[in-house]
Design brief:
Main location (chain C): membrane
GO biological process, one term (chain C): phosphate ion transmembrane transport
Pfam families (chain C): BPD_transp_1
Strand content of chain C: under 5%
Family (chain C): Belongs to the binding-protein-dependent transport system permease family. CysTW subfamily.
Order of helices and strands of chain B: EEEHEEHEHHHHEHEHEEHH
Structural class of chain C: mainly alpha
Number of strands of chain C: 0
Chains: A mainly alpha, B alpha/beta, C mainly alpha
Number of helices of chain B: 10
Number of strands of chain B: 10
Protein name (chain C): Phosphate transport system permease protein PstA
Bound molecules: adenosine-5'-diphosphate, magnesium ion
Oligomer: heterotrimer
CATH architecture of chain C: Orthogonal Bundle
Largest sheet of chain B: 6 strands, mixed
Strand order of the largest sheet of chain B: 6-7-8-3-9-10
Chain lengths: 314, 252, 282
């Protein structure tokens, strides 16, 4: 190998360094472009509606009404349903994998749970339309109405499509995120904490409940927020099962709409400037909310355990 | 003298490695028994077998019997959690629960076992903290976090936590090795005071400490019990050459 | 201390441990169901035509999604060509030179980007590239996917390079090699397995992305004719076909799902194997 002369070597070094530096700057530039583009794109809607955009409860492109409250409502409620289902299940998985499962079970089961995260959103949607939605319509909704029908949440027509189906499919999709991050958090709890509780004569569950979970609580909260961030931004599967009707109804049987799903639905057909701008503004709201949630989640998780790569990324 | 714990031909393994080899040893009631020996000789492993904590590490196993008041704690019918309540433990590094207050740390065991009849949690916590001499130092800040205390205070908090569930035996695995000399002295005093009520087994690699606090001393080497007897005999008149080598080597 | 209490404690211990295991089983049920449906319904749809024919107009039976398969490969290829080198460069910057406030900002940006919903990327690429070109195009779709890949590749590269022991770097520098040659030949080479793993995982991740393609690459019923033209893709076809009322299209959607899932899983598994073979990765 021929040694380059010192001069050309220095030159090569700074070129190399400069290139990687540019790439890094590009990353920051990219996020700035995203932010600027969203702000610019929503200017028209903002001057038109101001804060009324957020408080307005009617989204009706045909009549030029763009109040995003139904979308915000749909986003929040579908995500809450998802959390309600996914958090206990994910904690169960994390506890099982970190505290209980025999060693030979851990790796394959963790792999299967990760597989859940690898399946594309649109495939979840397809499965949702043809398997989950009929199941919800013919079994779950009638059952809920029979048992809990006196509550306003479980009344109305059985569509199958709607808020409930969206919440369930979101739950399935965020379980890998919440459970994997929580598992890492639990694994980072020092053994001395478990032994302290065990040595007092606590059972395994009491040890988990009183020593392990409290120790990891901020990390687990971070995992939940990370899952929430995913649920809020999730688009395809929700679009395919939520029914796509921007309305506010207490019943989870009703059709609904989220910010992400309305963008997927209407963006390519929005020929009216104002409509397009309103959709971009909805996107801006989504961007800001998921941004804040992600920052918060990362701060919380890092306090306890650095989540492994590939887990928080999904 | 009453034998509180009787260890009979006991062995313990981590996977393939045997860390405790056929140990037989009686632990007398209301006495302090010290376990000494070079690091890695199986002291911690041995003491963790006395409250069945060894088995919580995956891949471990044991053989032999440990009789607590005549009952084999390794019997199939025995609930290890109940044994661990009766045989308390204090660890090498203070391990208070960081999310709990000082009060809740002491009360942690009570929350799972319930209160002794006719007492309140406040009473038990106060009594336990007084026993370890921590009451005066923390009485006005019981709601502060357990980890806001100094290292020595944390270790005494952990002792109070163990005492609150009224164990019969207290196991201590090098309880002073992470502490400064003043805190160490306090804990040694505490141990002497506690032996009226409790049977204490303490692991230490500090032979001065063993000589100061223990009535009986056991010398371990490579997982084997080499010599066991009254502390003064072990230190002044060891029967085994290896014990003598170890003691003189350390005492210089 | 009271007998009843101990019974209760033992019971709730058992109960909770069983519930934790049950939660794990319950969470894996949908996975089983999805894989089962995709496999069985998908296999029924797959035949020679599926891989060789263009989609038929509504109402006509038969046809295939050959153009969508090719389209997905082109889109992912485009995204990789843009996203992987940039991601690796940024990762090198972070691992080798990245100290101080700028590096912190880059790292932070990177983490934030992984949380941005992919539909947002679609909006932004539409607002820039599609509007500028005045048409939907494969390029726009590729850029959107590349943006999603970028932070994934960057962070794996950084992590992998950091695993390379400093002694290797120093040994090379001591021999008089320049910094870039050191990074290039020594450090990158020993981290290569991990970087390939990370890149393949990023590929697997974007191959199934749909939302960012909806208003960038759009879709097409024809063969791909140029990078500046709209292009078909499997995910978008699954979406559109699943939401039509036609049996025949549902059938093709399942077939497309099987092909897509197979592509994603094969890539993911290859990623892990590559990582294991090279000794890096996880
Ligand atoms: N968790 C463990 N896994 C495997 N081997 C262990 C473990 N803990 C201790 N050992 C081994 O068991 C032997 C005894 O260790 P230990 O009881 O901790 O000794 P001591 O407390 O006297 O220093 C040592 O050889 C040690 O390496
Ligand atoms: Mg030890």
């Amino acid at each position: 190998m021929q040694m380059p002369s010192p001069k050309s070597r220095r030159w090569g070094d700074s070129l190399f360094r400069g290139l990687t530096f540019l790439a890094a700057l590009g990353m920051i530039g990219l996020v700035m472009v995203i932010a600027v583009q969203l702000i610019r794109g929503s200017q028209l809607a903002f001057t038109h509606f101001g804060l009324g955009f957020v408080t307005g409860s009617r989204w009706d492109p045909v009549h030029g009404a763009f109040g995003s409250l139904p979308l915000v409502y749909g986003t929040i409620v579908s995500s809450l349903i998802a959390l309600l289902i996914a958090v206990p299940l994910s904690l169960g998985i994390a506890i099982y994998l970190a505290e209980l499962a025999p060693h030979w079970v851990r790796t394959p089961v963790s792999f299967l749970v990760e597989l859940l995260a690898a399946i594309p959103s649109v495939v979840y949607g397809l499965w949702g339309v043809f398997v989950l939605v009929p199941l919800v319509r013919t079994a779950l909704e009638p059952f809920l109405q029979r048992t809990l029908g006196w509550l306003p949440f479980f009344q109305g027509t059985y569509y199958g499509f709607g808020m409930l189906a969206a919440g369930i499919i979101l739950a399935i999709m965020i379980i890998p995120t919440i459970s994997a991050v929580s598992r890492e958090v639990l694994l980072a709890v020092p053994n001395s904490q478990r032994e302290a509780m065990l040595a007092l004569g606590a059972t395994r569950w009491e040890t988990i409940k009183m020593a392990v979970l409290p120790y990891g609580r901020s990390g687990i909260l971070g995992a939940v927020i990370l899952g929430l961030g995913r649920a809020i931004g999730e688009t395809m599967a929700v679009t395919m099962v939520i029914g796509n009707r921007p309305q506010i109804s207490p019943s989870v049987f009703e059709l609904a709409q989220t910010i992400a799903s309305i963008i997927a639905n209407e963006f390519s057909e929005a020929f009216d400037e104002l409509h397009l701008s309103a959709l971009v503004m909805a996107g801006l709201v989504l961007f800001v909310v998921t941004l804040l949630l992600n920052i918060l989640a990362r701060l919380l998780v890092w306090r306890v355990a650095r989540a492994p790569e590939g887990v928080t990324r999904e | 003298m009453d034998t509180r714990l009787l260890v009979e031909d006991f062995s313990a393994w981590y996977g393939q490695t045997q860390a405790v080899k056929n140990v037989t040893l009686p632990v007398y009631a209301s006495q302090v028994t010290a376990i000494i020996g070079p690091s890695g000789c199986g002291k911690s492993t041995f003491i963790r077998c006395l409250n069945r904590l060894h088995e919580v590490i995956p891949g471990t196993r044991t053989r032999g019997r440990v009789l607590l008041d005549g009952q084999n704690i390794y019997d199939d019918k025995v609930d290890p959690a109940e044994i661990r309540r009766r045989v308390g433990m204090v660890f090498q590094k203070p391990n208070p629960f960081p999310t709990m207050s000082i009060f809740d740390n002491v009360a942690a065991g009570l929350r799972v076992h319930g209160l002794p009849p006719g007492t309140t949690a406040e009473e038990v916590v106060e009594k336990s903290l007084k026993m370890v001499g921590l009451w005066d130092e923390v009485a006005d800040r019981l709601q502060d976090s357990g980890v806001s205390l100094s290292g020595g205070q944390q270790q005494r908090l952990c002792i109070a936590r163990a005492l609150a569930v009224e164990p019969e035996v207290l196991l201590m695995d090098e309880p002073c090795s992470a502490l400064d000399p003043v805190s160490t002295l306090k804990i040694e005093e505490l141990i002497k005071g506690l032996k009226e009520k409790y049977t204490i087994v303490i692991v230490t690699h500090n032979m001065h400490q063993a000589a100061r606090v223990a009535d009986y001393t056991a010398f371990f080497l490579n997982g084997q019990l080499i010599e066991y007897g009254v502390t003064s005999d072990i230190f002044t008149n060891p029967r085994d050459q290896r014990t003598e080598d170890y003691i003189t080597g350390r005492f210089g | 201390m009271i007998a009843g209490r101990d019974q209760r404690r033992k019971f709730s211990n058992k109960l909770m441990l069983v519930l934790a295991a049950a939660a794990t089983v319950l969470a894996l049920l949908p996975l089983g169901s999805i894989l089962l449906y995709v496999a069985t319904k998908g296999l029924l749809a797959l035949n020679w035509d599926f891989f060789t024919q263009l989609p038929k107009p509504v109402g006509e039976p038969g046809g295939g999604l050959a153009n969508a398969i090719v389209g997905t490969l082109i889109l992912v290829g485009l995204a990789s060509v843009m996203g992987i080198p940039l991601g690796i460069m940024t990762g090198i910057y972070l691992a080798e030179f990245g100290r101080g406030r700028l590096a912190w900002l880059v790292r932070f940006t990177c983490d934030v980007m992984t949380g941005i919903p992919s539909i947002i990327v679609g909006i932004v690429v539409y607002g820039t590239i599609v509007v500028a070109m005045k048409r939907f195009s494969a390029i726009a779709g590729g850029v959107a996917l590349a943006i999603i890949m970028l932070p994934l590749v960057t962070r794996t590269t950084e992590e992998m390079l950091k695993l390379v022991p400093n002694s290797l770097r120093e040994a090379s520098l001591a021999l008089g090699a320049s910094q870039w040659r050191t990074t290039y030949s020594i450090v990158l080479r020993s981290a290569m397995g991990g970087i390939i793993t990370g890149s393949l995982l990023a590929v697997a991740r974007v191959a199934g992305e749909t939302a960012p393609l909806l208003f960038t690459a759009l879709s097409s019923r024809y063969w791909h004719t140029g990078l500046d033209q709209r292009i078909a893709s499997l995910p978008v076809y699954i979406y559109t076909y699943a939401t039509t009322p036609y049996e025949e299209m549902h059938r093709l959607a399942w077939g497309a799902a099987l092909v897509l899932v197979a592509m994603v899983l094969v890539t993911s598994i290859a990623a892990r194997l590559a990582g294991r073979r090279a000794g890096g990765g996880r």
